[in-house]
Amino acid sequence: MTIYEQFGVEPAINACGTVTRLGGAPMPAAVLEAFRQAAGHSVSLEQLQAAAAQRIAAATGAESGLVTSGSAAALTLGAAAIIAGDDLALMERLPHVGAAPCEFIVAREQRSGYDHAVRAAGATLQEVGFNEIVAGAGVRRTEAWEYRAAFSERTAGVLYVAGPQAAPPLEQVVGEARSRGLPVLVDAAGELPPRSNLKAFVDAGADLVAFSGGKAIRGPQSTGILCGRRELIASAALQMLDMDDHLELWDPPPDLIDPELLDGIPRHGIGRGLKVSKEEIVALLAALELFQSGEYDRELPEMRRRLERIVAGLDGCPVSCEIHDAADGQSPPQLILTVEPAASVSAMGLCGRLRAGAPPIYLGHGQLASSRLVVNPLCLHDGHAEVIAQRLREELAQNP
Ligand SMILES: *Cc1c(COP(=O)(O)O)cnc(C)c1O
């Protein structure tokens, strides 16, 4: 019996990857051990975050960094840092910005539910460009001049959502923003691997970059990384860390927060509710080291064999199977199952029936509109491939 069954919750077979809805990534034993050891002592969170800043800086090439409670929290803190800077009164007031510039320019096609995290800091989003390709009305995407045309005295910065297909290129957006002295905040939550992306967005000139800690890095699900320019990270840290101290006694590590640059000690900021525990910080740093070392690549052959066993188990079923290996040589392979028209059940129906079974099985549901189910092997355990194939066979054998 698993610990979850003591709470009446049945563990699921997760064939979706590190999705938040199913609890994120599998934490390696070394990460869990780091978490356990960290729990045994009290420590100054400011000092621990300053140590984390050094590790994150080394891993990303950024000047500084912060462990946050997820990438979404990193976006809230990043926006808060850009809006408030070192203004203690503004830190105290957020998300109410008063007369301060608070607009972030964003490509319309880069809008998503995650930008709520940016708006939560008090930012408003000013959209540029169109999504003509999706609209079927044209061939062009957002262009750099459209950002330039949108900049005004109300602009605080630019929000850019990174991705292999993101347009225009980040370098061009940074070029436009720099010419107006405006910072660029990059959402790169899910852009790892490849490992080279740890540095790519900083190299391209981003002022702040947000990564998830609980996806491919395999830290605690509730962690993330914000990295970037030293003074912005200092502002983010001030707005997240607990500030209940006397100015006379307060002694933050100067390489994270330089008190000389402040005219007082801020009160608890907008990020106080986004706190990260000492255990989470240490576990995330342990996971970051493993991720950077390439250690996880060793699991890729076994992940592929698991997908091959599912394919073998579906022989003769009305689904076509294709395994896609990742071009970066670092991401898990994916199995695409296309449900044929002759099947007695639709891809949506199959997805629902597998979730409703015992044990519940969650298949990737991002391509159901094209009758495809996606199997991501990252969170599968021994024996799961066989159960998935067997349950699919059972459901596909049902008469309509
Ligand atoms: C996952 C994701 C987030 C949120 O990351 P968390 O670490 O879960 O907070 C934000 N933006 C994008 C594009 C994501 O894929």
Describe the 3D structure:
- Helices cover 36% and strands 14% of the residues.
- The protein is α/β, with parallel strands linked by helices and 400 residues long.
- The chain has a 7-stranded mixed beta sheet with strand order 2-8-7-6-5-3-4, with helices on both faces.
- The protein is globular, with a radius of gyration of 23 Å.
- The mean pLDDT is 97.
- It binds pyridoxal-5'-phosphate.
- Pyridoxal-5'-phosphate binds at residues 20, 70-72, 114, 161, 187, 189-190, 212, 214, 224.
| Largest sheet data | 7 strands, mixed
Low-confidence regions: none
| Total helical elements | 14
User: Averaged pLDDT, please?
Assistant: 97
Give the helix level as a range of percent. Answer: 25-40%
User: Taking strands numbered 1, 2, ... along the chain, how are they ordered across the largest sheet?
Assistant: 2-8-7-6-5-3-4
Termini separation (Å)? 35 Å
Q: Identify the bound ligands.
A: pyridoxal-5'-phosphate
Broad shape: globular
Number of strands: 12
Instruction: Give the radius of gyration.
Output: 23 Å
Proportion of strand residues = 5-15%
Helix vs. strand class: alpha/beta
Could you spell the SSE succession in H and E letters? EHHEHHEHEHHEHEHEEHHHEEHEEH
